[in-house]
## 1
Amino acid sequence: MTASEIVDEFIACWNRMDVPAAMDMMAEDAVWDNVPLGPAEGKAAMMALMANFPPSQGTEFIVHHSAANGNVVLNERTDRFLVGGRWREIRVMGTFEINAEGKIQHWRDYFDAAQMTAAFA
Amino acid sequence: MTASEIVDEFIACWNRMDVPAAMDMMAEDAVWDNVPLGPAEGKAAMMALMANFPPSQGTEFIVHHSAANGNVVLNERTDRFLVGGRWREIRVMGTFEINAEGKIQHWRDYFDAAQMTAAFA
């Protein structure tokens, strides 16, 4: 799979809410940096971070634009979460770095924390 | 020039603080969307927005990653501004859409508004 295909598949895992499959696509020592919130390093920290999010009955990551340069993929998205019977939206851009084993080593998401807080209110 | 070259040159304009040259690279009806703040549409609105920013004695947009897909360029940056004798930094991702005339039609920057406010405090 190309770097772009790996990221497309990773997004697809989230969209079918298959967290184990998404985790499988990340390196054991991956760093997931939600830039305004700070990084989670390694799978245990990533799982702990997710456990802190409000429970979602649906997830839809809409990719508006995506481009790859070698092992790095950048995309522009609207991330939607069905929480408490209402879809919440966040405008996001993300950077994904794929390692030599085809796993996601770095995932950095850029968004406005205040927009996220308002969306989930 | 390719879409990537156009964006590289646009970044270079900012880094030499040549605002007229940067404006020249944008379409007359371009939309500059600082996502947490909202969009400025057209050159007059963009100039008015810039006039509201604190005066900068230096500008350095450091591009960490950049990738193009057709006429769309995405990049991950640290934008630095020398304001009041101190460099202020914002972590940013941006999307640039180039029109058929080779001008920037859309520029969307994603960052955390609170981080910007803290940086410029």
## 2
Amino acid sequence: MNSNRVGKQSVIFHTAPRILTSAAIAGDMEGEGPIGTYFDMILEDDTWGEDSWEKAERKMYIETVKIACDKAKCDYRKLDCLLGGDLLNQIISANFAARDLGTPYLGLYGACSTMSESLLCCAMLTDGGYLTQSACIAGSHFSTAERQFRFPLELGSQNTATAQRTVTGTGCAIVVSGDNEQKSSEQNSRIYNTVHIVGGTIGKVVDMGITDSNNMGAAMAPAAVSTFTGLLADFNKTADDFDLIVTGDLGRLGGTLFCDMCAELGVDVRNKYLDCGNIVFAESQKVDCGGSGCGCSAVTLCGYLLKRMEEGDFKNAVFMATGALLSPTSTFQGESIPGIAHAIILERR
Amino acid sequence: MNSNRVGKQSVIFHTAPRILTSAAIAGDMEGEGPIGTYFDMILEDDTWGEDSWEKAERKMYIETVKIACDKAKCDYRKLDCLLGGDLLNQIISANFAARDLGTPYLGLYGACSTMSESLLCCAMLTDGGYLTQSACIAGSHFSTAERQFRFPLELGSQNTATAQRTVTGTGCAIVVSGDNEQKSSEQNSRIYNTVHIVGGTIGKVVDMGITDSNNMGAAMAPAAVSTFTGLLADFNKTADDFDLIVTGDLGRLGGTLFCDMCAELGVDVRNKYLDCGNIVFAESQKVDCGGSGCGCSAVTLCGYLLKRMEEGDFKNAVFMATGALLSPTSTFQGESIPGIAHAIILERR
């Protein structure tokens, strides 16, 4: 048996599965943000003509998969598998999308870490020869998340200074075997010729005792540190070996904590670090500490970063979506907030 | 690259990962049922000394993993990965258990299909060389599920005739590489020498329009039929090729529907079919249509079936836990109930 395990919690992909295409749909506020022009579609109305936000979120899932498949010129009904999840109770957005798409389906729950959990699982299953062409999906919706996790929007409650805004958006990446030969010679083709997943690190749940569910960035930062330092140790690398280190939705406070905690461990990430929560919205957009939600890292990766990578702006990157594994029930019962981060290593080949 | 894909939605494991040990903890009513003597521990008090049922459920997760690891003489802190989920919003039982156990963790959501989803994913990742020794876990708790999905228990509401009782119980299986040489010569050893996972089928979400959340068996039966007939087609097998065909928690009505729907497709499963929901409780136990919940198939597989297989009572089996992918929100919004079933093929070697 071929061992693809590296160190204590990492894996290496000798066949380097490729991200063939990706797509992102986002809400209007995200569309007005710094990377808004990169998205495939911007919603003008956050119900998208449906009679509930939950149904709109589901429609975003379905349409994002279809757009990504259209770019790859593949029939979504012929996908080997859909891997994904969302923030709603019992991940109904992903479940109902999988029903309507009709593909084999593996439902995941990693809270806001879902985009990297799905890519990591999919890359392992593709590298291992169990899947050949699959879709990874994650997303969130501001209005469904607010009423499930915080307060009814109608209440007009005020945010705390450390709060982050849940991104309305879904991102989907089509992952194919490394030996898939579908390439494009057109410059503005919607097919990536060069973006491969070469390894990854399975996250551990880390809980430093933060109990404020309006301070998720601080709750999740230690998990990102744990995964990133675990990755460096397992692959015997330093931060200098990567052009870009990306976290999912730590936001302004959490991102600073991530850099500081890394620095305390002798790992300097400051000149190559980016948090999706800090670039999906501009500071002027009144989003307190930045963006959050499954959709935050999903639209940033699938809308913006992969395209930047294909264009040659960076050679490799560590992408770590970060998740806070609480529920309203666990918070009501006095529990602190556990965090997790899964990492994939992207490489331009 | 080695292809491990078979047909449209199935996978084959050339290295045949082994289930090394398993463990099950169950509630008192489950302990009084037909397979109660097989469980490793029966709870006398369904709070297990904790101050909430949710915390008791979490404790069951943690202790079940520890018992399974003890049997395998492995340190749970050295597991490559914990794969699992539960029914609670944001799968907090699995999340917090993963925090306390400290292992790398992949959170899954497949509702009551979680036991086979985790075993299927783990078998793929183990066969592929990404994991060498991991724990798969699923479980549920009657009292946490009732108050989240139905009514507060204090209300004393009556069940409908098609309702099933959520099993209080957790099951954990330790999966190791097929070439793992740890065997035991003692007859009553708690290590299985012979139980391998040789293949599996990734389920599709199937929805036949059932909207009664007190009739989950009927909602899930079509998904089990879809997966089972998909498996037979992909592997070019007939029902006669298997000694035992197991579904997760279709219950009395759903189980009958499964057999009838298979028969309509020319597949006769009747003399070798078993539903975990029908054997975890006796008919005399006033559980209406039988058991349900993630824990139903988890304790039946991990407590009873694997031991029966190790003892030579059957040579191979298809195990399909079945999940209803609804949420209270989707029901309130008038949606029908989508179902899913993932299958693994167990073989005595």
## 3
Amino acid sequence: MNEMKSGVIIKNGTVVTMDKHRRIIDKGIVVVEGSIITEVGSEVCIKKYPDFKVIDAENGIVLPGLINTHSHLPMIAFRGLGENGIKDRLFDLIFPLEKNMLSRELIYNATIHGAIEYAMSGITTFVDMYYHTDEMAKAIKKVGIRAVLGETIIRFPVVDAPKPYGGLDYGIDLIKKYKNDPLVVPALAPHAPYSVSKEKLLETQSLSSEYKTPILIHVSERTDEPMRLPEEYKGKSSIYYLNNIGFLKKNVHLAHAIYLDDKDIEIIKNIKCGVAHNPVANAKSGHGIARAFDMKKAGVRMGIGTDGPMSCNSLNLFETMRGVAMMQRAQYKNATLMKPIEIVEMATIGGAESLQMEDKIGSLEKGKFADIIVIETKSPNMVPCYDYYAALVFQAQPFNVVTTVINGEIVMENRKLQTFNVEDDHEIMKHIEQKIRPFAKELEARSIKYS
Amino acid sequence: MNEMKSGVIIKNGTVVTMDKHRRIIDKGIVVVEGSIITEVGSEVCIKKYPDFKVIDAENGIVLPGLINTHSHLPMIAFRGLGENGIKDRLFDLIFPLEKNMLSRELIYNATIHGAIEYAMSGITTFVDMYYHTDEMAKAIKKVGIRAVLGETIIRFPVVDAPKPYGGLDYGIDLIKKYKNDPLVVPALAPHAPYSVSKEKLLETQSLSSEYKTPILIHVSERTDEPMRLPEEYKGKSSIYYLNNIGFLKKNVHLAHAIYLDDKDIEIIKNIKCGVAHNPVANAKSGHGIARAFDMKKAGVRMGIGTDGPMSCNSLNLFETMRGVAMMQRAQYKNATLMKPIEIVEMATIGGAESLQMEDKIGSLEKGKFADIIVIETKSPNMVPCYDYYAALVFQAQPFNVVTTVINGEIVMENRKLQTFNVEDDHEIMKHIEQKIRPFAKELEARSIKYS
């Protein structure tokens, strides 16, 4: 892209940098050369770049791209199924759907679709655990979005690994292939402390350390988790267990982390593990409310996530930001908890910190990857706009995102996706929907009949 | 409007009627003549209406307009202020702002702005308590939206009533003027059980019964409410108090209703009072989680509301629908509570029932007012769409609403507002913002200094 131009310059916006000083620059510019931000400053500098492509932010907000720290994106193909009270949604619907419907092709196409929705909603990086992550990698490169992709490792056979724990080999192949990719960060994703053996957890940690990749894991999501740990740790917290066996290191990224005690928070903080806080999914799924306020106060490296599209069907990180405030304030009956600036931090630089990627993404600073979004402030819902952080957290909607730049590439401009034909995507997804619908309806009917 | 045509026909959509049988008509039509729906049926009937204006729903969802059952819309002028932890936001910020900034002109212009945002987000009726409700009435008729407007009655002087309880006279004037208006339903709005005397509550009820208008009141919103009731009822619940003095009748519409016991729910149900459930505002304001599931189960007439734009800055009833599920499921740790169809009911026919207006609005049925929205299902966030109710509750965003018809008038078509120049509104609101900003910043600074 931009072959004819030396680079891209975004002007005429309020640049909310999220840098160390949380600088906000009125009438600021962000200069992009190749995949890198080379200057963030005031509009007077603009004449230095006469032959750059200019994006006019039209008094909007220029923000680092949002980081969605937890998802299972290909499940978007099943979004909206089983929403009417199936008792065991996982066993009666999701597992059979995955077993019978997932294919390389479906995972590729569903990832395209989800990545389009992300890019059009201001999400420039997402963290994902799923299967056939090599297909996902191809898809995200096609759309041009950044992702940490973790191949799922679990004790039973799954769609891309017929042997127990086959994901480990699959993941190592992914790592070898994408180790130096500009957009994909390959990772290993042991599913949860109760679904992966101690030995395999330690093997995963050892391989991740060797290849210097992140580990993604679900932790403390359910109340029954302590009783599902290995015999000698039964009743203990998952964090205690994982730390005690030597699995927890700063490359470990913990999804959910709902049921934590003070000691757990201290361990996470000291080891510098990352946390993905998923307030909307945790609520919708009936799992409860994580201690986000306490974690933030303790200085835990924490981002926010939607979780997968069957857990938080609206892949809307603005709504997730509001969800952070709503759930903490309802829980503690205190309207002053979780200030807007703190929540925008979680959606940007905090997410980057949770991934140990704060030197690369999460703020608009010279030398970082050019992951930038422009949010218009002309639509009725963005007026008035007294306080940029409050407007981002409590007013903004995905459709206010007009331009999305990822790794220096203009992925969306003026609400038009530049990298993929959205009509093609629509047609493919409608076809997938038609194929899945009869089987899913049968599963739902069966589940209702027997429940 | 449509002077040249005999009426309007919406075709080529899935009509989610919300009628008694909850009929869903694939490839359905809705026929509008004047302000009334005259037919809801299958597309084969279309040839009966050769000279009607045709709106093509393009395979989208045709739904009754959403009903926002609680708001203070002119506060949109202050939206985004005081979001950084002012301790007493009401006394240190909101009251001084209202005292110094409110004028007839501001209330008119802010109502225009809010009504535009509503109409563009699929809200066709809203319920409001505020001041200078005659200005609000003028504004909403200009935009062409339907509203129940309650003039606030409170024990101290306010902007439009220099004497205590002056709102009562103001409200009676409003009622006389708008009694037979096609869009405005005038109402009286005693602020709360603790801020209006027993005598004035009963006077309000007697006048409302005489004029056959609704009464809007905040109830059981705060934990300290029982201790603020009149001496002989101190410690009792507000519902007990209001019922005991003979104030509660089916014309009473209760906003919030958070802290209810089983007996309170029974009383509300038996008397057929309406309830406005505001899950997002209740959470954001730290007030807690209302017993929506229990109320729904008991058969209470219940709608959903955003509350005012300082309590729920995003005036987004789709998000409020999701909020219903999130808060109940987080509270009771049960993912099967509040099914999508039940939540869509609350946003449509349930809201109408809460206002005793179920014979006029809330569903797509012959003889009802033509309040209709079309929701496109082509944007990535609406794909797939296995289940219309689940897609509406968990996927839809305001920008998916493409067409809004209110009282037979096409207020928005293809995302273009037809009744008001949105650029004029933008300019006026930016001017208001500039005027309010310095005073508000001074109040915020003072509050932070002294807190």
## 4
Amino acid sequence: MSEIDELRLDRLLERATAINLDAVLITSDESIAYLTGFKPMQLERFFGVVVRPDRSSVIVPALDRGQIDDAPERLDRVSYGAESDGIPELAAELAGARTVGVEEDHLIYARARALAEHGFELAPAGAVVMGLRVQKDDAEIERIRAACELVQEGLRRAFEWLTPGVVERVLNARVEALLREQGASAAHPLILFGENAANPHGDPGLRELRRGDVVCADLSACLDGYWGDLTRCATVGPASDWATSTWQVVLDAQRAANAAAQPGALGRDVDAAQRRIVEAAPELGACLHGAGHAIGLSIHEPPFLVPRWNEPLAEATVLTIEPGLYKAGVGGIRLEDDVVVRPGGPDILSNLPLELTEVG
Amino acid sequence: MSEIDELRLDRLLERATAINLDAVLITSDESIAYLTGFKPMQLERFFGVVVRPDRSSVIVPALDRGQIDDAPERLDRVSYGAESDGIPELAAELAGARTVGVEEDHLIYARARALAEHGFELAPAGAVVMGLRVQKDDAEIERIRAACELVQEGLRRAFEWLTPGVVERVLNARVEALLREQGASAAHPLILFGENAANPHGDPGLRELRRGDVVCADLSACLDGYWGDLTRCATVGPASDWATSTWQVVLDAQRAANAAAQPGALGRDVDAAQRRIVEAAPELGACLHGAGHAIGLSIHEPPFLVPRWNEPLAEATVLTIEPGLYKAGVGGIRLEDDVVVRPGGPDILSNLPLELTEVG
């Protein structure tokens, strides 16, 4: 990742101070990347960024010390050796603080307990850092667009490779390799054939592609720290009546959700816009998930476009909008694009045709 | 995954009851897989297994309900829709319990707080479930052996592809695809060239392979739920004096660590056995990490073979033992095998030759 805007530290501090936090402890890979430009590979070892008015620091295992050279200069570099679990070093960086904001959806209970035993009072601060991360700056949007371009290229190639007899697992591996060769630090193709596509979380297996299949191709890739995530569908040979009708409903649902994704709209409103359309066609299949979620440094990040999400969308949020319909034993159709929330209507970051492609 | 031994639930309950837990809440992917045979894909949605004397259950999002069919019959199936975050359903399953054991290295602070607000008292129980998971049964060992065989095949092919001019990132993508095509549910090749190999957590990039390079090839793959993780090294053309000497030191260190991996030995003892050998050769490079860690359903699981680990090894633990030496600007040599801890000495699960291969 390129140089990090140091103002992010100032803004985080300003918001933390406003809710009476003495310090913020950042622990998720993506938030660490947001503040430092360095995305750790977290296993059992502790990584964190401590942000406080007087001094801030980044704490890493000694093994990873070489990777934080490009972090903002005002962050003190702290590392710990194999004899430590990093908590004493963290406690030293927090010393003097009483209330410490944490990423409550990431910090593990063991570390929360250890901090409590050191006398710190923890408070959820996930919304503070996500409140910053949710509004993408122009450079971030361009990176998501670049990730989408890579994913589009993957989809185009995947569709070329959709010939009867190809094995689901082999095709997915081949597409993953293509994305990784092109520089994706991670890539998750989920290309499912026929009845397998009826499960939005299916697992590519030994199923061979057959004439008459519907194919649901969901590809995501992380490029230069940011994710793109798109889904298109195809039929092997002419589309069945089911596929044609379902495609049209899902397309309508996507248009409705896009139109609803306005600054100030609630997450649940975007979901409701697609849900009322897909749920009106129960004979075609079931609505098994919400309308989507935000995307950026994480492939899934808040806000989530689901019935329980009552918060308004902020301008410059990037959402992946992905309505779908799934019919057991038959298949699934999903349509997914990444869009930037803008007052004049969403800016769509991909330019793949909105069509149910015929292959084979 | 195939059928799960229901006795695992009994043993977990027995150990939990012995430390006065009223219930255990299992939340990590791998522990859920250990108890149910189903490995979730966790994003923001809650998954858990509640184990208690009177009734036990598995809780999943409605979207994943179809995937728990093969879980042990005595587990009640509980699912929740898009309008819930799963916590009310979890609280209902725990109702009546006071002290709830949790996986403290997995449960997130937000859920720990929510459970505390529901009146439950949490207690760390990671050691209870890991105490079961650490001792592999024969079927588990055979799966790790199968994963190692797949990784070996990947290493053999990778070494065939090591010709001058090949790009690091492309080679890694190609090996990843090979492992995935063969059925790996996840695969992490980390094949680094020349000076890049001096960083054990390096990132494959656009570096082309050159004559004179040392290559450090670390491959891991998850097959049927279980991981194998092996490392071998090569030189492009004849080995340099540095590579030859370093290889011999690392080989000696691996032999010493293997010999130390006896039931009852402390994790730190296994580390010390290799550390005293690699640290005696500072002119060849630095010792940047411990001797290794256990492996199984997770690629990194306790016990960790590091200076701070003071607990004794149990028989039938599977360890990956991976000493290495790293010299900035020159390269790195690491040697890694997966072994089963046995009273008569470790059973090595791979049969790759212990040699510094010359390629190109």
